[in-house]
Design a protein that fits this description.
Chain lengths: ~800, ~160
């Protein structure tokens, strides 16, 4: 299926998006300004859980400059409930503002639109809300127990979803195993916190019931039906536009804010802009689920892993919009790079009085990888085996590819042993052991840790049938449009414009090769505009799907145009089409390149000299392509499904030093080997590998949305919620392998999560190794100095 | 609420002079963005931690989100828009392009200005000095590796320019 190499694909071209950014000309949402625009501010709950007795906005409305105030009761009266992406057992009507109860600190209670954000915030102070505080459900396990405070009474419990998936003969395998090890792991709430916060501008034209939305929401295809339903509009009555998105990482999706801003615009009759401030972003946009995982592995006498049982509790916060995603995606990497054939996943999705969970780089997979790669080290210790040799023994061999895991996931390509081997070379593992010995003699605690990971990408919507028992959507896909304009210039419009991943550059590389035109002459629009851009439910920037779906859409659209150019060229040149090629900006004869028609000449005919076209040919040179990868399947009778379609892989190694007096962990060296198949642009791929790894390091050591026992969020600024700076992220030593996928147009696979998935495990394994003589074992993320110090104290019997 | 207190502000931004009367509580960042149109000043946290809104004020890097516009009265300010001269990018900007030292671009204006400030103070910084100087500027995309490379490269370009 390979499209062959081209002149532009594979080259380390400088991303063209970068040019506008280094000069401060990014097309970010906050830089758009509509005449007459108002600014919105949101009053948020200060309680984790409380009944709303009354909301009085009368004083706020008197403030000069305030155009309107929307309360929860009003929102309920003038909009329809937000439709959950994942159908719930019982419908729980919820709106863009809380109306009966508040269920987390930061939940929107009322909103103001005023002539400036300053005035809008003044007005918030004048809104009086009377609450009746209720006990909060904070810890996910306690929240599951009878008698816990209930968030949604109609659900009758805080357990939103529970299911147990069995693949293979799990009980028999465990009963017969030579060794069974069980451990418990905890992951914190964190998020990738894109530097640009979420925002939108809504312009509701009441005269013709037409809504125009400018936003940085990264998943238009999914947001559109939710907004339409809530506002009682059809899709044809909404125009949805995005421009430059200042980072996404899954976080930037918030249909409730789009609905809320649209309602304020409708009420005020003016455009309304809402842009989160950072505090709002940290307390109320999305957090990755915190969770608890009990993992048991069954191991044969020779060290072969034969069985795996996982009991996973995902704390969704107050999420009703898209729960179970953190649970379901773990089925895609539950056996990681290993040949385990008997697997049980017992999953719980629990609501608590915390910020709603949502997508965040890797979604669930970092925790799954963390638990299993920590277990690998435990097994090695228990069996007295070398942890690298144990992994080598269990890795799937390259000749097993493509390999179907017990859960139905298909690993399309990869050479895991070669990835690990290369990692050990570049990490200089052999010389580390000596270094560690010397350091210990000097009283320094150095450790080496590694983790390997599969990196599944491109979500298959069918997988949600497993959790919902309903077929709300299936498959994967993206759309794109390529047009040769009337002067012969080339224009590309994407369904997924990206949010920093260089999609516009990559698209130009593909189209330049397909149409035989120079890279610089391919214009790619930075805008998604539902009026212009082809799109569908799956359209947007998520799931590392560029390689899996977007490339196929871009190639498909370019090929439609190419076919037409060749047909038209053959007609105008009077030669058989098979004798022609597209090169140097023209259709030309292969044997006689001087016989040619340039794109400009062909476009002149296609758009202006219409009578020169073949009689049956439609004018114009435009190709739209809605692509879906053939690999997407439906769950089978055994509940196996390819929940993500294309699988990259990575191996990470960290060398750390632990200060046993303070518990502080410093990374001395960090090595990465990554394999995402064919590389379209090495500069972009390397950048994504670095960035994803930095997110993994943040999750491993620093970042945590900390709630106290009453449910108050303690980390609402970047002073308390610690992002790693250039001082904390080390230089990376990285290398690549290329195992092309047999199932994507050019063999490309997803890139962007590969760093975030294994990094926490690699670092924790290194910390354990450093502290091995003390018998310290860390099972809670992040590995803050306090946590590490306490573990050391506890291992030494001091506490 | 009472009538807001107004202050007059005269600033030179990127070589052009501006006189304005603004609310005393208006931040320098909002003043630069909303009143003067310098939207290269990005707001990432509005509490002085992320550095996206950094500008050079009388030659020093400041966070424009935690300064009032009134406090800048009489100052000379350089924003990212004022760094390129006569259509020619500053060497730091060129190096950021060459090394793909950015992804989403939102931190870039502040990051570039912090690097410019560093290279004025220290013409040949080590990687460690670069990291320390940029520690007040958060980037959520790149993992900083390419940024450090770019600043090193820019230092070399600037030194070569001075020598030449």
């Amino acid at each position: 299926m390979s499209g062959g190499s081209g002149q532009w694909k594979g080259r380390a071209l400088r991303p063209r998006e970068d040019e506008r950014f280094v000069t401060g000309r990014g097309l970010y949402l906050a830089n758009l300004n509509l005449p007459r625009s108002l600014h919105a501010a949101i009053l948020r709950s200060v309680h984790p859980h409380a009944r709303i007795i009354s909301v009085d906005a009368s004083e706020a409305l008197k403030l000069p400059g305030v155009a309107c105030v929307l309360t929860g009761e009003q929102a309920k009266a003038i909009s329809r409930p937000l439709r959950s992406l994942i159908p719930l057992p019982v419908e729980v009507p919820h709106y863009c503002l809380a109306h009966d109860k508040v269920r987390y600190v930061g939940e929107p209670v009322a909103a103001v639109a005023a002539t400036s954000r300053y005035i809008a915030e003044d007005a918030l102070e004048k809104i009086r809300v009377e609450y009746e505080p209720l006990p909060a459900a904070v810890d996910p396990e306690k929240s599951m127990a009878p008698g816990a405070p209930i968030l949604y009474e109609s659900l009758g419990s805080n357990v939103l979803w529970h299911d147990c998936f069995d693949y293979g003969e799990v009980d028999r395998v465990f009963a017969q195993a030579a060794h069974v090890l069980t451990e418990r792991f905890f992951i914190q709430r964190y998020s990738s916190t894109p530097l640009e916060t979420f925002g939108c501008i809504a312009n509701y034209d009441d005269a013709r019931s037409y809504l125009t939305l400018w936003t940085n929401d990264q998943r238009p295809g999914q947001a559109m039906p939710i907004i339409a339903h809530s506002l009682g509009l059809s899709a044809a009555q909404i125009r949805f536009i995005t421009a430059d998105i200042g980072g996404g990482f899954g976080n930037k999706r918030k249909p409730p804010y789009l609905v809320l801003t649209a309602l304020l615009s409708k009420l005020s009759g003016r455009p309304v802009q809402f842009i989160e401030d950072r505090r709002e972003n940290l307390m109320a946009l999305v957090h990755a689920c915190n969770g608890v995982m009990d993992v048991s592995v069954a191991v044969a006498e020779d060290g072969t892993l034969v069985g795996l049982k996982v009991r996973d509790i995902a704390d969704e916060g107050a999420n009703l919009l898209n729960p179970t995603v953190h649970s379901l995606l773990k089925l895609g990497n539950i056996t990681n790079c290993y040949g385990i054939r008997a697997v049980r996943f017992d999953g719980y999705s629990v609501v608590t009085n915390k910020c709603p969970s949502g997508a965040n780089r890797g979604i669930g997979k970092p925790f799954m990888c963390f638990a299993l790669e920590r277990m690998m080290d435990s097994v090695a210790r228990r069996l007295g085996r070398d942890r690298i040799e144990l992994r080598e023994k269990n890795l799937l061999p390259p000749e097993s590819m493509p390999y179907t895991t017990p859960t139905g996931a298909l690993i399309d390509s990869g050479n895991f042993p070669a990835t690990l081997k290369k990692l050990l070379e570049i990490a200089d593992y052999r010389s580390f052991k000596e270094e560690q010995k010397r350091a210990r003699a000097e009283g320094r605690w150095l450790g080496f840790g590694l983790a390997i990971a599969v990196e599944p990408s491109t979500s298959n919507q069918s997988a949600y049938i497993l959790t919902t028992k309903r077929r709300a959507a299936s498959g994967a896909g993206e759309a794109a449009m390529v047009r040769v304009e009337s002067d012969g210039s080339v224009q590309v419009v994407l369904g997924d414009v990206g949010s920093g991943q260089g999609h516009q550059t990559a698209a130009a590389q593909i189209v330049a090769d397909e149409l035989g035109v120079p890279f610089d002459e391919v214009q790619v629009s930075p805008y998604f505009d539902s009026l212009v851009s082809p799109w569908m439910y799956t359209t947007g920037n998520y799931s590392n799907k560029f390689a899996g779906t977007d490339v196929g859409a871009i190639q498909g659209a370019a090929r439609k145009v190419k076919e037409k150019l060749l047909d038209l060229g053959a007609h105008l040149l009077g030669v058989p089409r098979e004798t022609l090629e597209l090169a140097d900006g023209a259709v030309r004869s292969r044997s006689d390149p001087q016989r040619r028609k340039t794109l400009a000449e062909l476009a002149h005919v296609a758009y202006r000299d219409l009578l020169a076209l073949p009689a049956a040919m439609e004018p114009g040179l435009e190709g739209r392509y809605y692509y879906r990868p053939a690999l997407a399947d439906l769950p089978d009778d055994e509940r196996r499904v390819r929940n993500q379609l294309f699988v990259s892989n990575a191996a990470h190694a960290a060398i750390v030093e632990v200060d046993v007096e303070t518990g502080k962990v410093s990374i001395l060296k960090y090595a990465i080997v990554h394999d995402c198949g064919t590389v379209l642009n090495p500069l972009i791929v390397e950048g994504l590998v670095h960035g994803a790894t930095a997110h993994g390091i943040g999750a491993a050591l620093y970042e945590e949305f900390a709630y106290d026992e009453q449910g108050q969020l303690l980390t609402t600024t970047f002073v308390d919620y610690l992002k790693p700076s250039a001082m904390e992220i080390p230089d990376f030593k990285n290398d690549h392998l290329e195992s092309p996928s047999p199932f994507t147009p050019f063999g490309m696979k997803g890139v962007g999560e590969g760093g975030a998935i294994p990094a926490p495990a690699a670092i924790a394994n290194a910390v354990d190794d450093a502290l091995a003589p003390l018998g310290v074992r860390l099972t809670h993320l992040p590995l803050t100095p306090e946590r590490v110090w306490k573990a050391i104290q506890s291992a030494q019997g001091k506490t | 609420m009472n009538t807001p207190e107004l202050v007059s502000v005269s600033v030179e931004v990127n070589g052009a002079c501006f006189d304005a009367t603004v609310e005393a509580r208006k931040t320098l960042a909002d003043f630069l963005r909303e009143d003067l149109g310098f939207t290269g000043v990005n707001l990432g946290c509005e509490h002085g931690v992320c550095g996206a809104c950094s500008v050079l004020l009388d030659g020093a890097v400041v966070r424009s989100c935690i300064m009032f516009a009134g406090q800048a009265d009489g100052a000379k300010i350089v924003t990212i828009e004022g760094l390129a001269r006569g259509g020619k990018l500053h060497p730091v900007q060129r190096a950021f392009l060459d090394h793909h030292a950015l992804q989403c671009g939102f931190c870039t204006p502040g990051m570039v200005l912090a690097a410019v400030d560093l290279l004025r103070r220290n013409a040949n910084p080590t990687a460690g000095e670069i990291r320390e100087a940029l520690a007040g500027n958060l980037c959520m995309c790149t993992g900083y590796v390419n940024i450090v490379r770019a600043v090193k490269a820019a230092a070399q370009i600037l030194q070569a320019e001075r020598a030449g």
